[in-house]
Amino acid sequence: MTTETAHPELDGLGTYEYGWADSDAAGAAAKRGLSEEVVRDISAKKSEPEWMLNLRLKGLKLFGKKPMPNWGSDLSGIDFDNIKYFVRSTEKQAASWEDLPEDIKNTYDKLGIPEAEKQRLVAGVAAQYESEVVYHQIREDLEEQGVIFLDTDTALKEHPELFQEYFGTVIPVGDNKFASLNTAVWSGGSFIYVPKGVHVDIPLQAYFRINTENMGQFERTLIIVDEDAYVHYVEGCTAPIYSSDSLHSAVVEIIVKKGGRCRYTTIQNWSNNVYNLVTKRAVAYEGATMEWIDGNIGSKVTMKYPAVYLMGEHAKGETLSIAFAGEGQHQDAGSKMVHMAPNTSSNIVSKSVARGGGRTSYRGLVEIGEGAAGSKSNVLCDALLVDTISRSDTYPYVDVREDDVTMGHEATVSKVSDDQLFYLMSRGLTEFEAMAMIVRGFVEPIAKELPMEYALELNRLIELQMEGSVG
């Protein structure tokens, strides 16, 4: 099977659907580079309390001291002095889609976000454009039950005590270099609190869009699920295609209390000039369940390892992830499960697809600490190589410090065989249709866990990525 492109017009820009950019007056005026002045200016523009400014300055100091990661992807191309750390696209948050500035509204119309709300496919919507959330809405009946769904900046102002109690407790300011950077310059993101016993029956959705060239987007999401409560949060991400790079470095902290359940779904479709370096971590207490559903498509480099710390007996953690790497892309993704209490359980299922010389890496850690007797963990990593020039690696790490535990790990790498293609093509499919069907079947265990509209979107994005893969 040759790797030459049958449809060159579909390669590069053509395989990425959201590569257009809007007018960029706000971005053009934004200052480049990171300094104490920039951090103080962000805090002042947001009228933040002194404790938050001090935390930001601490993050800046630690960012300067901490080394770049010496493992994983090559990050030497990031020019921190050329990044725009804060871009304010509008002066106020809109109360309805019609109130948004015309260029921003057109962006979200193209992406179909208002339609999801109109059809009541989601219980609440947040839309972040550049550094700040420009639109936010939640169903009235959820508000009446005490559910809080705000952008993180507004939550700091309206719920200061609840905010300060949990902010930075799951991911400390000095956790890693990029968490320190996020703490220094964070802006936007979602804040969710679900009261005891409340079940949010359909997902809350957030959408993150980078429009400015050399933009750095640093949203901060904080979710607190109280006892016996439930929420499903879905986020999507896109950016225009530019000749130079942008940086997305988010932090997500989740607290799931006794008997609670949280599902966090990401469908990321960044353009291939974005460095996507994200820290996501949850703590799950007695009988709680935390689920990460992670779809990583696009970006130049992704380094993302959603983690669950199982802190209470019978807590459960699960990560289901799919990564797709095309030409010039490296998806370095995985998961981390830390068992800190007895009779806890975790499950990691990782699927990756590489084509066109792309590279996928699974990097995972399962740690079963002293006192976590009776715990169970299972890891399954499957990689599919569409051609002979792509690459897949697996870096598992297991640390077990108890005797009475069950631990399983399985990893496979397979190629699309000529026999599979021949069989499907003998049934009337074109080579492209056959290849796309094989890939869809490979990722189906992940796709079936998504809400219907997101599963369809994932399959559509994969087909777009597959264009140009046959010939």
From TrEMBL:
Pfam families reported for this sequence: SUFBD_core, SufBD_N
Ranges for domain SUF system FeS cluster assembly SufBD N-terminal: 142-205
BP terms from Gene Ontology: iron-sulfur cluster assembly
InterPro entries in UniProt: Fe-S_cluster_assembly_SufBD, SUF_FeS_clus_asmbl_SufB, SUF_FeS_clus_asmbl_SufBD_core, SUF_FeS_clus_asmbl_SufBD_sf, SufBD_N
Ranges for domain SUF system FeS cluster assembly SufBD core: 208-442
Family assignment from sequence similarity: Belongs to the iron-sulfur cluster assembly SufBD family.
Record protein name field: FeS cluster assembly protein SufB
Organism per entry: Streptomyces lavendulae subsp. lavendulae
